[in-house]
Amino acid sequence: MSFTLTSTSKLEKTEAYHPPTVYLSPTKRRRLSSPHPEVGSSIQDIYNWTFHSDAIAKCAIDDVLHMKPSAAQSSSYPALIEQLLKANCLKSTEYDFYWLGSVPCRSVKIVGMVVGIQIYEKRILYSVDDGTGVVDCYHAHSKEYTSYKLQNQSKGEIMPPVYPPKPVAKIGNSVEVTGTVREVHDTRQLNVTNIIRSEVCSSPNEELLHARTVRFLHQTTYCNKGSFIIPHTSSTPQKAKIPVTPSIMGSGPPSSVSSSPIKSPQVDLKYKSSIKLRHPSRLHTHDLTENTFRIYVKHYMDNAPVTREYSDAAYDSDSAAVAQITSTPTRRSRNDQTPRQSTSCLDNNATPRPRIQPLNFGVNIHSKAASIRPLTDYSRQGVSLSFLRRVPELSLLAGKVVQAVCRRRMREEKQKLKDSGVVPSRTEKARILALAAIPLDKFAGKKKRLFQWAIIQLLKEGCLVHWDGPVRSFPETSFMETSRLWKTNTTSILTDDSNLFSATTRSISSALVENSVDDGALSDPDPDEEAYIPLTPDYLAEFVEKSIKVLVEHYEKSGKPYAGATKEGILSVLRKDDRWRYVGEWNIQDALELLQSEGKVWIIAKGSGHLKSRSYLFDIYPFAMRALYAFLLQIFHFIYATILLIRSFWKRNSAPAPQPLRASRPRIPKHLAILFNVDSAVSAEVAQEIVTESVVDAVSWCRTVGIGKLTVYEENDLLSKCIHNIRKRLPIHGQETELSESETEYPLTPPASEYSESRPLSPDIVQEHNAPITTISVSDPIPRREEPKRLKFRRRRQNQMVNKVPRADLLLCLASWRCSKPAIANAAQDLAQMYTRQFRENTRSVRGDAYKLSVDELNEILEEDDGLSSPDFMIIHPVESSSAILAPPELHGYPPWHIRLTEI
Questions:
Q1: Listed residue (380, 573, 403) closest to 471, CA to CA
Q2: Which of 50, 347, 620, 756 is deepest in the core (most CB within 10 A)?
Q3: What transmembrane ranges does the database entry give (predicted)?
Q4: Which pLDDT tens digit goes with each residue over 326-370?
Q5: How far apart are CA 779 and CA 147, in angstroms?
Q6: Rounded CA gap, 394 and 387, in Å?
């Protein structure tokens, strides 16, 4: 805000501090010869004036916190405040406005850094710090958001969550806040009327410029001791005068500025450039790298202005325009801008050309309410390598990068020689200096290779794709209207509308003239040259939509239900065309989000998309479909849980009783294996007792059922400690037992055992090549011969017991981890030694072939019938404490080659 002063002294002070190029509005002077003193404005007029836009005071945060309320100024205006209280315009307990020195104000404008953000349901609270203090800025949500939320709540339907608006700035950003001062809990806040980032509104130096303006106002306006007089505003604003030096390459048309004290309207954010890079001529030496050049090429292709020729009207575009950087609106039209001359022909006698049409800077803003991409768009054009080489800024940057890289190589060579301590010769010095001096015939080739490298890298990163549509024609002027792509120097004095733009454009243009390569030095482009276009979501969205349709048709032909298209599925369809080889999932995600905002795709889950079509979706809102599917899913889960509950209850109550051991069974395994998994929490004594009892019971059951072989495995060799107890409690073949006279114990006469005929009587059978296992042949004990007088009676009782409980012989095998890999190693070593010994005995002079171990030989040794053979059935029995969690079944080192056909 600018203040218009009426006193002569104030005006003289203002003119002393004000630059001569910016003039304030016409002010009303009093006659110097008037002897009457000034009369200040009435309190009622001051109170009304504080609501005006001109009353917004630029100040620091410390001024906001220490401004005096209106009633505190009673020493100057006691009668006026009393008059205002009597008129019911001001309550005695409230202060409607404040005094910033001698200036009344209700609204202030501050510029500072955001140091805190708190998002609430109805507001966002920004904490702003400008170095003098911290103040909270209360920013209420927009009316559209609150009305939309209330409307959704009144319907009573299941609605998607409505997220509050995002903050306009992040922590660390510099913001410009305009708001009304209010008292909150013994402190002061700003009720925000407008908040905008300083980088967007003018320049990153806005905070420093604002601080300088505040200091100037304190020296000239806020410290006046006289009565305050409301300044008069002029309806006709004056334009600032900017001196322009005539030159061949003239600068751009000056932006028209106004020195009117009336607050200028804020420019809409959607018409402001989001990204501006430093001009290539102003880059530092350490920034001149290949990666910087790649970034600038991508920035130019994304945001370059679109030139339209008369012949381009016949082209029909297939999708939206490339995202363009928008221009800053000014009061002066740019349609009368004079075209610049070409650097290749700076001839005053050249034939004048007609005016070219103004460049079109499109706006690409995604709207969720309406369709974003127009049906017809003539602005999408591809870019070729020849076109990029003829862009003055890129050509200038390429030359700078090539020279900087050569200089770095020269410094590296010098540093290597310096570190090695070798004094370079004249030839070596000349070679090093030649690295920095690039011949003119090779300079253009190096620049071209740099352009080619940048395009290839952008293609591999998925930022560009090949283009087969209309290609941009070469510009008639080498200095195109691309100033909106680069940052410019701007200085501001006093007001927002009083801006002095420096002549950066002229310096940039002169640098382009001096450093750019003439167009005549470039070769003519190939008519079949490849063209490229930035891969933007609006361009890719059309192809993603077609890919989803292809997937839908594929599911229709195969008869499978269509449940949605994933990003991987869309990529598989797109990559059938080599143009989309380097497209990534992030590109597909952006395109799907754009299609969803247009209402063409419904995102079912993360990473999947569903095409909205009459054949596959009902004509209702997506959130209603989500609610319907969620309800159906809950019903399905309820039915499934009910079925499982009924089934488990039925099995528990109607399960048949287990059959006795002597019952006939259709399938009985000949070889049974039991794997004991002993938990480390169980003590050794308890584990041995449990394992011994389990082995004895298993042997008894196996003999009753008719199983001929039982293998018991324990990983930690616990069975070797239980062998003695197992022998005592088992009837071992070959052991004689004395019969007692009791009628309750009558030993049986064992039948012929196939194991007893071929095996020795020793319970431990250890052969040379067998696995390290312990085998025990279990059968009924052989009774002793008794006296002849009782022999007949005993045999009769024995035959009766045999008929009652038939029990078969059993081969018990006890194994541990040594039967696994160590057994294979020992068997292979024994076979190799046996082969070597036999070979030496047969042929001692001739060297034979290397021995080849076969699987059959290993199986013959490791899988003998009386050893550790393959079981038909395996039982895994855990030995754990009652508090332990049941672990999943594991083999725990059991030889895996023995369970190829085993049922576990």
A1: 380
A2: 50
A3: 627-646
A4: 444 444 444 444 444 444 444 444 454 444 444 443 333 333 333
A5: 91
A6: 10
